[in-house]
Amino acid sequence: MSIRHLSSLSLVLVAVALSSPADALTHAGFLPRQATETRLSWGGVYHRVDGVTLGGWVTIHYLTLDAARYRPAIAFSPSGLGTTSSLEDMIGQEGAFAGINANFFDPSSGLPIGFLLKDGRVLNAPYLSRATLAISFFGQLHFMNPRIALLFRTPHGSIPIDGINRPMYRNALIAYTPEYAGPRGSWSDARVIAIRGDRIAWIGSDRGISSTDRNAYWLVATGSAQTRLADLLPAERAQLDYRISPELYLIRDALQAGPMLLYGGETALTPEGFQADVLQKSAARSALALTRDGTLILMIVTRGNGSVGMSLLELAEYLRTLGAVDAMAFDGGGSSSLVFQDGARLRTIGSTREIPVGLVFLRR
């Protein structure tokens, strides 16, 4: 799949916007009945739209922003990656004006699912070729379904990595970054390498790992994976990196969720490893879309309190009626939430569930 990118002058954090009645009944359409709008002191505009789909009544919320004044960034729990917190806490930590939930995650461990890149640093492994949002250092946004591989670059060549910032398992090579605060586990026969300043600082056993060393990367090999580290020596260069195809340059942040909803103005909904009921049932939804006029849409559709939610197909088809060219889904259901500054307080729309990763918006 080729890459589409954005360098537009306006952003929209949205749930689904208002269309004309003539558009509303197309395909599995949404028919708006009520709409309200509130202008916020810092420049955003909050909207609520209520209407019906074939499944019943739906409530949608969205927030519009100007991309010339605000930029998106990846945020995670103030306690560290591998833990969860409220989206409000993430916005407060980053000094942001608004945010939306992002990656899927394992609720039992708090570990995010899918590729994660922040400030150019790889923080989480990719999951299949699910829909990915990449943000350049210049603020351009790329929607894609890339192939991504993790590796360590060394003088002896590139060493493939099986995982990053997750518990160890047998016959695997796992990397740990200073941002990680989640479970690691312990293996008596593990081979461990500490890397500081892109050079190997120490080689030893699992017992030598220090969870308090916030400047070191740790490379941990168990079982047969130890052979991958056999040629490495202290003081040699070693750098955590990734390969992405299609190739992109100067990427600052990236997150992976999915599935892709629209691409090039056409419906692009495919399973991407999700179960069929995830695609077809009505649920709370969060999504990101780019319209033909250069408006970015961050979307939340609620479920409960009379709202039945939307299926992903309904969401994709309605976004297309709004002029969206590209769109991808984020984690929905009990994670779907939109938070923004409203006067002296942060206002939360949707879930208050703690999450590991959010997409927040800061003043440029």
Automatic annotation (TrEMBL):
Residues 1-24 form the signal peptide. Residues 228-361 form the Phosphodiester glycosidase domain. Keywords: Signal. It comes from the Bacteria. This is Phosphodiester glycosidase domain-containing protein. It comes from Fraserbacteria sp. (strain RBG_16_55_9).
